[in-house]
Amino acid sequence: MGQSLNEIAQSLKDTNKKVQLIYAFNGTGKTRLSREFKNLISPKDTENEEESESNIKVLYYNAFTEDLFSWDNDLEFDTARKIDIKPNGFTNFLRDQGQDGNIVKNFQRYTSDAITPLINSDFSEVTFNIARGNDDNLPNIKISKGEESNFIWCFFYSLLESIVEILNTAEAEERETNKFDDLQYIFIDDPVSSLDESHLIELAVNIAEIIKSSEAEQLKFIITTHNPLFYNVLFNEFNSANPQSGYKRKHSIRKRLEKFDDGTFEVKEQPNDSPFAYHLFLLAELDKAIETQNIQKFHFNFLRNILEKLSTFLGYAKWINLLPNETEGARLNYYNRIINLSSHSKHSGEEVSVIRDADKRVLEYLVRFIKENYHFYSPNNND
């Protein structure tokens, strides 16, 4: 039976683990879950709890964090482009800590050292320059949406580094600030949407290193993501101990968040002995849809995704070549049907569309075909 997001948030609160790593499709409700969790731990009347200066119990990074940053594109003269930063307690803390250099360093690590953010002294705005060689800089450029998201994340990342270092001082009276003495949870929702794979892996490793270095017993972390690679790298990193901080493999737990057609949710614990294989997860979802006779249009998108990954692994230029061709023209017919039914569909349970019985039979047949012909592992197969 499904649960509400509030009930899911309560289950996260009741889990006594240092780290909870959660995978979910985009559109499942990860951002709303972070808000429900925040309201459960530290309910406030104001919408923007980042303005609080003391007694902070929960800190999160999600889509709301980006709302603190907005572009002023200088539409009149088109020259003095900048990002305005809404005043808030945490960027003020980074300002007082002199963290502007660290933010710039982190940004350039995950993007390019050719782009230099220039944060003003009161942390109210930032401009960007790009180096063109021979000490020639192009000032006040407009960076891409992905670079902008990464820049905002680097504020939070620098804050994360500072908080862990501060709370690693066991005696509260010896800490450089007591602003975070009551902090219990840090919730990180999908910081990786704009990164290429190499930087994504580096970021996952770095986040895991920071979290595993945390010695504050009361401080716990929740990470949600829709990215299988990011999830797997974190999975592997949290599977290794850190003797210096006392972190052990048992201190983390892996979960998967699902949304049902009726708007309820379920969070399932994932095995700790093997990484998350996205294509196997999709195949399991197809098996479940076939078994329950609940085949939806988006399941053809799952099938297409599996075939694309399988063709890359096997070295085929086109995934159409993996389809059965029992009669002349059958392969092309299967291909066209998958293309038509997988176009403009979603990876979530929100899409409800009527699928013809003939199409359902085709999906069942193709799933059975690829499992048998390309030797996917099955629990019922002892080979």
Structure description:
This protein has two domains: 5-269, P-loop containing nucleotide triphosphate hydrolases (Rossmann fold, 3-Layer(aba) Sandwich); 278-373, no CATH class. Helix content is 41%, strand content 14%. The chain has twelve helices and eleven strands. The strands form two sheets. Strands 2-8-9-1-10-11 form a six-stranded mixed sheet, with helices on both faces. Strands 3, 4, 5, 6 and 7 form a five-stranded antiparallel sheet that branches. Strand 8, helix 7 and strand 9 (220-225) form a beta-alpha-beta unit. The longest helix is centred in the middle third of the chain and has 23 residues, at 145-167. The relative contact order is 0.13.
Average predicted local confidence, pLDDT:
86
- CATH superfamily name of the largest domain? P-loop containing nucleotide triphosphate hydrolases
What does the radius of gyration come to?
24 Å
The helical percent reads: 40-55%
Element string (H = helix, E = strand): HEHEHEEHHEEEHEHEHEEHHHH
Q: What is the annotated CATH architecture of the largest domain?
A: 3-Layer(aba) Sandwich
Outline, from the CA principal axes? globular
> In order across it, which strands form the biggest sheet?
2-8-9-1-10-11
Residue runs with pLDDT of under 50 for 5 or more positions: 46-52, 344-352
